[in-house]
Amino acid sequence: MMMMASSRISSTFIHPSFSSPATPFLHIHNNNNNISNNNNNKFSCFNKLRKQRNSIILQATTEKKSVLDNRMLVFVPPHPLIKHWVSVLRNEQTPCPIFKSAMAELGRLLMYEASRDWLPTVSGEIQSPLGVASVEFIDPREPVAVVPILRAGLALAEHASSILPATNTYHLGVSRNEETLQPTVYLNKLPEKFSEGTRVFVVDPMLATGGTIVTAIDMIKERGVDNQNIKVVSAVACPPALSKLSEKYPGLHVYAGIIDPTLTDKGMIIPGLGDAGDRSYGT
Known about the structure:
The protein is of the alpha/beta class. Helices cover 34% and strands 25% of the residues. Strand 4 and strand 5 (131-138) form a beta hairpin. Helix 2 runs antiparallel to helix 3.
């Protein structure tokens, strides 16, 4: 089913199997027949109905926020540049240097969307050349981390430092056994403990079976990060991986360039874009 997330992201995909059924929302409608035509009580009835309506809206908003807080949401921003770079990545004729560059540009756009309304800011005043101006900066005291999953995650996260001020990058290498499809960690540069309140972007281009991304998030959570402080950035996602994430991490947000329907027997996304690591680095 499709769900409107906000005015900035008009396409939010939530597969029916990803979460439990949503709490029914209250439907608000106006019925003019309930308002008396008697001039003596016309306005008192209107005020009473308006108060009731405002109370219902508040209750519905609270219930809606509670539901969304407990569900994993998958955002597919409908930006034409995102569609363009996904198309470049899909093309089997795209050479490695262009593929890697396209992956980096897609990552820039997705991380821009994922960071909206999520990064802490600090406000104040500064002196411009022509006067005093009220300003707002990203708060450098609040830690933000980027965790690219090697290899292909490096390409998708290449421009992270250009759009996310004061970030730390922690590399995590996870390979997948081509026979069993089970993940193996071969490089771990995560800190022993993340600072309290750290916001973490986990960058993994392909969410296929879900084994790699689940392994990565488990390791991050073991180091003190809550679901609500983790955002996953991916070029292509598939329902098996999204289903695993939804079951394990309520409140998690995933930002993907596109969602593809199925996998091969070898766990490759169809139609996908091939092996993102091989196509990024030519090996």
